[in-house]
Write a structure and sequence with these properties.
2 domains, PyrdxlP-dep_Trfase_small, four-stranded antiparallel sheet, PyrdxlP-dep_Trfase, Aspartate Aminotransferase, domain 2, Aspartate Aminotransferase, domain 1, seven-stranded mixed sheet, globular, 13 strands, alpha/beta, 417 residues
Length: 417
Amino acid sequence: MTGDQALRATPAPAARAAELDAADPLRAHREKFLTGPDDDVLAYLDGNSLGRPLAASAARLDDFVRTQWAGRLIRGWDEGWLDLPLHVGDRIGRTCLGAAAGQTVVGDSTTVLLYKLVRAAVDLRPGRDELVVDTDNFPTDRYVVEGVAAERGLTVRWVESDPAAGVEPADLAPAMSERTALVVLSHVAYRSGHLAPARELTRLVHDAGALVLWDLSHAVASVPVELDAWEVDLAVGCTYKYLNGGPGAPAFAYVAARHLDAFRQPVQGWLGRADPFAMAAGYTPAPGIRRVLSGTPPVLSMLALQDMLDLLEEVGMPAVRTKSALLTAFAADLAREQLAPLGVVLASPADPARRGAHLTLEHPAFRALTPRLWAQGVIPDFRSPQGLRLGLSPLSTSFAEVATGVAAVRDLLAEQA
């Protein structure tokens, strides 16, 4: 068969998408997510920035306002609200992180929790004066590391990483030494979607006597994570991407049980103190993971998050991971067929097993084309300098959306050319 004959024999993208959607064992769950009243979105390809809301969350929020907030008022704090960060944290740990109870807590933003954990980690490794982070890690991670280094008189050791890939053991090894206190890495790279070999990298850090902090923001609820089995020290992640907690939903922090007794966080708020309602002089940290808390728990923001955890517990992370790999593989295939002839380059690992639930395409025209795509109801994400990021949330994204989105990109590029 000639190349032209093979191309003609390949089913059209829409037909292939229809076949994949029909065979998708998770397809029925898409109906559990809400769409807008005007339903003007043809392809939502930014689930790794903000997940769609679940219909159950609308009902839960309404019920909470009417019955718990209005009905119980301040009594709600004694009736369960104060313990929500621990309860929801344990659920995230059990469902998504491979973490036993008592090691995960919800509260604050990702940035604030990163700061707390980085500062505490420095104190857990006294006498060591270097913090290690890669040059293409998410900006917040880099900024927090630089800020803590400046506060504590430490040195930042930079690992050069390829923006189209991510950190591998060979990249990290030269940066490790007896001076290393903490290494901060992302399990799934925010730009390329590279899935880091977390077990191997964690072992490499421990061989140097240092601690590792994993940012799981683009990994949690999209790829399996096994923090306890990997012997991870610390982790943090947001809940508004694949955990669908909603805009501004709080982050979570994981501190391995072996470190909790010595863990001293730098933001000493009253709810992280032992017996906070004693209002006593001096700060004595609460036992266990509660000591990571500082102020009042974000109760409203934890409501929608619980609905997504219900769904994830029903489906299971292996099924989610299978779907995410199929989605990114389909998107990459379409990009190779339809966009590569127009100059588009895949800026992510080619192997679906080596990336999370998103991938990035690059072309000089993408900055200008992104607003036009949004106006058409095709919603990807732009990442400077020329990356179009496709975030494919496994439980809410259809293969048809992927086909529609890639076709829209093709049409606009062709029109410009």
